[in-house]
From TrEMBL:
Keywords: Membrane, Transmembrane, Transmembrane helix
Origin superkingdom: Bacteria
Protein name per Swiss-Prot or TrEMBL: PH domain-containing protein
Pfam family, one: bPH_6
InterPro entries: CFP-6_PH (IPR019692)
Domain annotation Low molecular weight protein antigen 6 PH: ranges: 67-141
Transmembrane parts of this sequence: 20-39, 46-65
Source organism of this protein record: Dietzia aurantiaca
Amino acid sequence: MSGGEVSDAGPKVASWSPGVLWPSVQIVIGFGLVLVGLLRQDPLALLLTGLAALILIPTAVSQLLRRPRLEVVDGSLAVRKLSGTIFVPREEVVEVRSLGVARWGARQHLMRLEYVDDRGREQLDVFTRLDLGTDPRDVVQILTGLGFRGRPTDE
């Protein structure tokens, strides 16, 4: 595994990315909140809208910087993180699994990716629909079909 650019790694088989619409809306809302705070000329309004913008804008920028979030390149899994891209060879993948979690009365599906990094430590990454841009159960099926170790879906 090594850091690097995904585009230089060779032919892609599959790629999953979050959409650009929601992060773009977050950035616009963040700047709109700052503008509202400045126009109100109230220190408390500026503080509150500034704090909200301080959360919204960096979150959106990090979502845009980590595209594509997950990609299969030359038989390896490329995982994009803020610190760079990590390439995980197929044999280093311990488990790819779909999890179903009930939160606030609604069922949410997650993809669990467990692998061994270049230092020999096991790493666990959990992806949601917002991370992948599609249903995590479908991603697990595709990765399992490509030869990455998978387990049955938890419903």
